[in-house]
Amino acid sequence: MIRHLAGKVGGALVSLLFVVALGFLLFRVIPGDPVVAMTRGRPVTGDQLAELRARLGVDKPLTEQFADYLAAAVRGDFGTSYVYSRPVLELIGERLWPTVLLTGTSTVLAVVIGLWLGIRGAWRRGSRSDRISTGLALAQWAMPTFWLGMLLSLATGDLFPSGGMRYPDTPSDFVSQAVDVAHHMVLPCLTMIAVVYAQYLLVMRSSLLEEMHADYLTTARAKGLRDDLVRRRHAVPNALLPTVTLVFLHLGLVVSGAITVETVFSWPGLGLLTYEALTGPDLPLLQGTFVVLAGAVIAMNVVADLLYRVLDPRVRAS
Amino acid sequence: MTAIAWQRRRAAARATWREFASQRGGLVGLIGLAVITVLAVLAPLVTDASGLDVTRVTARPWEPPSASHWLGTDHNGRSVLLLTWWGTRISLVVGLAATVLSVLIGTVVGIAAAHFGGWVSAVLMRFTDFFLVLPSLVLAIALSTVLPRGLGTIVLAIGVTSWPATARLVRAQTLAVEARPFIERARALGGGHGHVIGRHVLPAVLPLVFVNTTLTVASAIVAESTLSFLGLGDPTRVSWGSLLHAANMHGAVSQRAWWFLVPPGLGVVCVVLAFTLCGRALETVLNPRLKGER
Amino acid sequence: MSSLLELRDLSVHYRTARGEVTAVRSVSLGLAAGQTLGLAGESGCGKSTVAMSVLRLLPRTARVEGQVLLDGEDVRGMSWGRLRAVRWAAASVVFQGAMHALNPVHRVGEQIAEPMRLHGVTGSVSALLDQVELPARAARAYPHELSGGQKQRVMIAMALACEPRLVVADEPTTALDVVVQAQVLDVLKRLVSERGIGLVMISHDLSVLASTCDRLAVMRHGQVVEEGPAREVITSPTHPHTQALAAAFPTVGDPASRQVTPSEGAGGPVLLRASDLHVSFGATKAVAGVDLEVRAGEIVALVGQSGSGKTTLARTLLGLRKPTSGRVLFEGRELPRSASGLRAYRRQVQLVLQDPTSALNPRHSVYEAVAEGLRIHRVDGDESARVAEALSQAELRPPELFFPSLPHELSGGQRQRVVIAGALALGPRLLVADEPVASLDASVRGEILALLLRLRRELGLAALVITHDLGLAWTIADRVAVMYRGELVEQGTVEQVLLSPRHDYTRTLLAAVPHAQRSTRPNWTSSP
């Protein structure tokens, strides 16, 4: 177990290193001259360009740039934002918690709703409620997240605040602040749940359907178990295994959801920061958010793998 | 001999079609796709492209739907109906082109990773797993930010970030096929890599790839709309994503201009749903695992 | 005689896309407490459907007619609650394939205890495990941590958990090795006689049933074609189908079932020779120093349990796997290592696999399957004439009729003939046949074996037949090599090895073969 853990963490670290290197490739090598890419469509003088080049260190040869970049990245230094003129890591730190709050809440709710509806659908396959819930899930899956967000905000009118995380004039005590944040979070959270739960529903449903004909369910019925016990004790624990992996594999979906939802609702998180960085374009900032978002997904996958080991005795032993 | 083979293939195709047609969802999806494709192709023939030009508009901006403009006008006074209609073309083209690129990469990597074994497989698998975990939208955003704006960029950005799922699927299917004894029989008969892949693996994997393609088109179209919505699309062309980008930038929500918001999004939903329904129906027809082993 | 189980005029129909299919046709059977009844038949004859109908476990697509009386009460008329109470407490099932019948994510102890808790029976899991000769700590194991035989014992312990009066065992030993099979059957027999349980045992293997059951019923196409005391049914079958089934499981030592004369395959030059062959996967040695030869026109049986390394040895002889050390010689020349050299070698030595259903690509027609080798080797001449010739050599006549058929349109025996024809098309000198009849129905086994013998007689084709079945070796082989843990522990002529075995392992194997008629058993028990 310990050895496996070490192996997984080691593998994740290698992946993380790849991400950092990919960040360099994307933002320093592919654009040719990053400074030109960043100042495209803006009047800049030659002096300003030269100064920017020196600040980013892009006037040095690529190998030297890479070495500098790597050394800085290991220290957690992703340079200075071009738009904000502040360290990238500091900006990311500020924006991290709103994103964790939003994506965490909506993922947990989406998983609960999705799995519950998926189990119900598979067990009563072909019934009216199954057809409706599957059809609805497919339709929601087809919807672009941001469009749904805009529609929701259009439909609810002034019921919920359409942007930001809190009003500036809210009293500073904890309860008022919490209520205010929750009020702001309703629409973005609903939007994210609506799109993400569909995925979980479909995965859970098909994975339970695959277990439906398993021989051990016949054994359980032969023992005299009630239908709901057969489902709860025998079918669902087995069907959950592939679902867990897929839920975590689809975390990328949550991340992309966060980017568009935060953009639509001006939720001050990493997604909005990414959007601000790409409109700049503020390459150091975009690089930073890229590495952090990718790194977070990699870390969550390690968690998923460990969770899978706890859940599945077959993997646990090997 | 070939006559018999062709006859059999035709019969098999007919049987597949009958099975597909028996699924209402798939049929609805297919009809939807046909209608949308015809509309997209006919756009330059039945509509006047000059209506897309901001400098030649005659209507007022933010006009609600009326007899002259069935779906109202945008912030420049252009007809939303016309814009949405033309947007179909770019959305479909980008979706299809990105899918072809993605499925091609995914199939080659997947088959190679499963067939050759050894270090080739290990490296390819590690590579695939790495990209599978990366949030593809973030990668696509990065790519389309640093490359010059244009259709090619957006196709490339979606294509090279969405292949790992296909690669994994194809690899799993190839492994399943190669574990079957008929592969060993082919090897014992003296067949080499080319023979095994060409005669046994590809024919068994292609139906699945085909299903996967229809589902990938769906997600590629969503990806296109998302990237364009973030302002990373081709600025010179109208797509559903770029329309929604404009709607968001110019405050369609606060203007309560639902007529500008609903049509492009509904376009995405219809096309994506049509592809998904087709894909799922095809999956039940072609995927032997869902149909039960013979 | 009070009946524990009585089937009265039972018929079961399944609704399918092609209309209703009848699986069981007016079957009437009875079983008294303490009695054992064997239900024999080939796959698809309806015997498992009968088993499932006892506890009403059939899928919803099934329509049942007639009566299933369990202790005089009709199972079909029970309410759900009553049915749940009866399940496992009055009658339990040992399912086919313990691998899948146990839930992979629960410990086996929990799974054994589950019905006890449910039906309010007191008892201890470790006592049950003890009865099936498993240690108490096995309760903490997950199914995947146990071997096939151990899982089957867990299934038996589970079936006994609520002390039912009736146990239905559906192919309880099918996936197991002969030695393990014998152990599991012993456990089952002992428990049944100790506890006075009524047992219905279902199998395709008459010899298994003969050694366990008092009475036998033989099913075919959903009907019982013969029923009577086990001994009578085995020794003097009246129905032709029973005769075919009985013949498919020959008794070692019975001269009537031996189909080769000792002189037939002797004296040819050595075709294939392995010397000091080793094959390892990492640390495990699958083949550990094997010396074996096959002469021209000779049939050699390579016998061993699963995991003995016999399949790996076969693959290495075919050049499909590289040996770790040692040599394989064909006609005195070492196997080529280059791809083209190996390809040329393949025209001399061909493979016949165990399961013809999976050995044929389901998308390829018979013609394509047989012509595949010809195309790979770019054999000149009239392709369709060669294909036709190979098919008629494999007794698929007229061959043109089979050209467009797809594998799923053929019967199991026909499929195996297509596989053999595909090998014959290349005109090989040696066939390596890996369990060539193990997955075939009993009644067609004999035909395929006869085909191998005829090919040897007419084409001089040598064969290395890999099998776990000593009866098969007795029927067709000239020589036998016994493999155990990667080594050949004994080899010699069939008569030497099977009638007077010298190695302990060979004796264990022979003792494990289920026997109905002790009288014809060879007299080797007292040999050194």
From TrEMBL, chain A:
Subcellular location: Cell membrane
Keywords: Cell membrane, Membrane, Transmembrane, Transmembrane helix, Transport
Residues annotated as domain ABC transmembrane type-1: 96-308
Gene Ontology cellular component list: plasma membrane
Transmembrane segments: 12-30, 96-117, 138-161, 181-203, 239-265, 285-308
GO biological process: one example: transmembrane transport
CDD domains reported in the protein's UniProt record: TM_PBP2 (cd06261)
Membrane topology of this protein: Multi-pass membrane protein
Protein family membership: Belongs to the binding-protein-dependent transport system permease family.
Record protein name field: Peptide/nickel transport system permease protein
Species of the source: Saccharothrix carnea
Source taxonomy: Bacteria, Bacillati, Actinomycetota, Actinomycetes, Pseudonocardiales
From TrEMBL, chain B:
InterPro entries in the record: MetI-like (IPR000515), MetI-like_sf (IPR035906), OppC_N (IPR025966)
Superkingdom to which the source organism belongs: Bacteria
An example Gene Ontology CC term for this record: plasma membrane
Coiled-coil boundaries: none
Listed PROSITE patterns: ABC_TM1
GO biological process assignments: transmembrane transport
Compartments it resides in: Cell membrane; Membrane
Membrane topology: Multi-pass membrane protein
Family that this chain belongs to: Belongs to the binding-protein-dependent transport system permease family.
Name of the protein this chain belongs to: Peptide/nickel transport system permease protein
Domain ABC transmembrane type-1: 88-279
Transmembrane segments: 27-46, 90-116, 123-144, 150-170, 201-223, 257-282
Keywords annotated in UniProt: Membrane, Transmembrane, Transmembrane helix, Transport
From TrEMBL, chain C:
Gene3D superfamilies with a match to the protein in the record: P-loop containing nucleotide triphosphate hydrolases
Protein's UniProt keywords contain ATP-binding: yes
Molecular function GO labels: ATP binding; ATP hydrolysis activity
Residues of the ABC transporter domain: 7-246, 272-510
Record's subcellular location: Cell membrane
Main location: membrane
Record membrane topology: Peripheral membrane protein
UniProt record, GO biological process: peptide transport
Domain of life of the source: Bacteria
Keyword Zinc: no
CC per GO annotation: plasma membrane
Annotated keywords: ATP-binding, Cell membrane, Membrane, Nucleotide-binding, Transport
PANTHER family: DIPEPTIDE TRANSPORT ATP-BINDING PROTEIN DPPD, OLIGOPEPTIDE TRANSPORT ATP-BINDING PROTEIN APPD
Family classification: Belongs to the ABC transporter superfamily.
Protein name, entry field: Peptide/nickel transport system ATP-binding protein
Species assigned in the record: Saccharothrix carnea
